[in-house]
Structure formats: C-alpha cells, structure tokens
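// run 5 | inverse folding | seed 20
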C-alpha cells in the first residue's frame, strides 16, 4: 500500500486510460495511442505504444507494446491469472512484443506467477510488465501536471491548515525528494517573512541524506549568518479542502544545516516561494486556507 493514495473511483474507465496514456508519453514512450474502444474497434487493445532500446552489442531494437488498463476504483479486486493469459493471447494475435498491465490495485499472486512463467518461456516470446497502484502513485508524483489534470477538480484549490492555535498557520505536507528517490512528511509553519521554504536539519538525519553532494550557502538572519543546503527538484504534496492531493513542484528549497541551533525547531517553514503561488489567505471555522 503506497504512503500517498489517490481516489481512483473518481476516474471513469476512459479517464483512467487517458491518464495512463499521458503518463506513458511523459515517460518517453513513442507512438502512444489510445484505441477507440470499448467495442470491436479496439480488438482488445486499450493503448498501444513503442519503445526503442539500445542494445549492448550495438544498434537498437524497437519493441511494440500492448497496454491493458484496469481501474478497480475503491474495490479490492485484483487481476487474476486467466486475465493475464487472455491478454497474452492478444499480444500474440496483434504481433506485439510486450504486454504492459496497468492497474489501480494489484495483481494476484497467481497472475504474477503465470506472468513470470510466460516471460521466461522462449516459445511464447512475450515479455510481461506491470504498473500497480504503487507505481502509478510514484508516476503521478513525478509528473504533477498530470496529477493535477485528473485529481484536482475545478479551478479553485484550497489548502487547509490544521486547526488554528494562537493563529499559527500549520500545514502538513509530504515532500518528495526526486533525486534521492525518497519522501518525508512534515508540518510546515506558514511564514510570510521567509523568502524560501526551509526544512529543519533533523529531516536530513531521519532520511539519511548525504549533505556532501549539496550546495552549502550562508543565510543572513537576525542573529547573524546560518548555514544551509540547497535541495534541488522537490515536490510538495498537500491535501486540498476536497480531500484531493495537490502538488507544487519546486526547483529548490533549503535545509538548515544539522549543526545549527535552528534545526531544533519543531516546525519547517513554508516560505514566500510557495505562498506567493496562492492568491489569498482566508480564515474559516478555526482554520486558515491558502487559495488559488
């Protein structure tokens, strides 16, 4: 079960296929086409795509891919072995090389077993790969514009703070460190006097971050200068007031050096680099909202 979950039940079958098509294109697959189905026109194909692979011996090979998309919404249904067999027969019939199964849930253990057996069978000459729910979550976080297209409805986005205490604006968020391939959940204190979003140095310790690869800078503060590190290519994931997930992709945020006194602060600081992306701050029923 992925740490961050999407409500797949919001998507119709056709919307789920469109989302998969967008992700495939963003990942660099070629000639990605969603077929006209359901019906006789698609001949059992949801999406077709191609991938060119460089061979170690030299030259390149073009792989033709048949993509089958299964959105089970909120149900716990899994893809079974019989479905894998049926999809493989379509691959054979249509002259494709690879079967890619994309599902919003998972595959049964029997399906995974038969897929592995078929992929190793030289007589079948079909490779099988899967994208399950965890893979889809990772890809939606990797491509926030696709995530926003399918999971943030309407034109208004409101990010809710925690219930206000002494009028402090505290917002929980998950930070995706793309180059590190990891994530961490924090509580931000909204700070309009801070130019750049900052993380407490304790974050580096808890996720085992190697600071040697990061650019070290000095920041001017009321008490003099403090040491910080630039964290490039991060994505901040917030919950909206509707329960959707909303992503803001940042070129960089800052991490207070672990040996600074500020690392002991209980909060990370959400700075103006994020706040200015929202049009207003409102207050309703004991909560603040950032709205755009």
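// decoded
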């Amino acid at each position: 079960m992925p740490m961050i979950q999407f409500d797949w039940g919001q998507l119709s079958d056709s919307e789920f296929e469109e989302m998969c098509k967008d992700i495939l294109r963003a990942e660099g697959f070629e000639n990605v086409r969603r077929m006209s189905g359901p019906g006789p026109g698609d001949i059992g194909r949801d999406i077709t795509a191609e991938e060119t692979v460089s061979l170690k011996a030299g030259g390149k090979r073009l792989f033709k891919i048949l993509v089958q998309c299964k959105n089970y919404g909120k149900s716990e249904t899994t893809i079974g072995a019989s479905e894998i067999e049926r999809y493989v027969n379509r691959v054979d019939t249509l002259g494709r090389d690879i079967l890619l199964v994309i599902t919003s849930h998972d595959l049964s253990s029997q399906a995974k077993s038969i897929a592995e057996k078929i992929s190793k069978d030289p007589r079948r000459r079909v490779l099988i790969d899967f994208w399950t729910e965890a893979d889809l979550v990772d890809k939606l976080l990797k491509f926030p514009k696709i995530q926003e297209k399918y999971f943030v409805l309407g034109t208004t986005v409101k990010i809710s703070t925690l219930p206000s205490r002494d009028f402090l604006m505290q917002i929980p968020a998950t930070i995706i460190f793309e180059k590190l391939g990891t994530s961490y959940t924090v509580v931000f204190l909204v700070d309009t006097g801070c130019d750049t979003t900052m993380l407490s140095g304790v974050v580096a310790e808890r996720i085992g971050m190697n600071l040697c690869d990061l650019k070290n800078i000095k920041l001017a503060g009321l008490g003099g200068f403090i040491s910080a590190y630039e964290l490039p290519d991060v994505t901040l994931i917030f919950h909206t007031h509707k329960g959707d997930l909303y992503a803001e992709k940042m070129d960089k945020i800052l991490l207070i050096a672990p040996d600074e006194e500020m690392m002991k602060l209980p909060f990370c600081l959400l700075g103006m680099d994020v706040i200015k992306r929202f049009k207003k701050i409102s207050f309703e029923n004991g909560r603040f909202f950032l709205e755009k």
